Amino acid sequence: MGIHHNLAREELYGVVPAPPGSIPNFTSPPSIAQRVVAANVAFMLLSTAFLTLRLYTSLFILRRTGFEDSHLVFVQVLALVHGITSCILTRYGLGRHLWDVAFTVFNRNFGKVSTGLSYSLSIMFTKISILAFYLRLFPQKELKIVIYTAMAIVTAYSIAAGSEPFYACKPIEKYWDITITTGSCINQYEVFLFSASMNIATDTIILVLPIIMLWSVHIPRSQKFGVVFMLMTGGFVLVASMVRLVHIVMSYHNTDMTWDFANQDVWWALELHLAIVCGCLPLGKSFLRHHFPKVIGRST
């Protein structure tokens, strides 16, 4: 009886005290959780459509599959895992104010359902896939060195950021159990800042490399338009990374993490799935050339 009574009392309290002028609401609180669900579902459908077209092109038009195809399929699985875990987190408070989340619902649940590893690995494999494609396009030795260096940097910081839950706290249980008062944890926001900054840096490299390659190449205007369109899509990924960094900076001293993370997760999903779309675009010309030759032309 005593244990059940204590649990009932804890359910009456939010994770943090409500700010002045606010009253905790555990039954029908303000929530933006629907944004998380809608963004992950919509962007997943978008990237799935582009990946399906890429696989169709590889299997039935070019009749060959490569390293990038298998990588992007694996990335799509990781992206699905990220979307599912984000939706699961809405059950434990994601999208609600932290004072509107019952302590027993949040503690030992929210921290265990981590989206960081699936997100980081998805971004890592997508960028490696795009960079591997660049290796076939760039004959210059200097550019190949840049590409291999970029691959190494992407791998290193992605693994470091994605595995953060495993080393962030000592003892490790402190990461998800806020009742543990002993031990210590690193500043999680600093890891987010580091990851977002490195994503912006590597996005910029991936965006600039084709421009360097195409600077002296003479191709028809219609083909240049197609290349520019592909680069603009890469620019959208860069913008998404920048906006996410702005959100992280703005929420640096904000303790309302469940609300802030929901807004950030929308941009995580956008950045992740746009990166997959970018990984699929290099075969877009082969698809268009096969089905719409009058539009795209038959030149390789």
Automatic annotation (TrEMBL):
InterPro entries from the UniProt entry: Rhodopsin_dom_fungi, SAT4-like
Protein name: Rhodopsin domain-containing protein
This protein's record includes keyword Transmembrane helix: yes
Membrane topology recorded in Swiss-Prot or TrEMBL: Multi-pass membrane protein
Keywords: Membrane, Transmembrane, Transmembrane helix
Pfam families, per the entry: Fung_rhodopsin
Domain annotation Rhodopsin: ranges: 53-289
Source superkingdom: Eukaryota
Organism: Zopfia rhizophila CBS 207.26
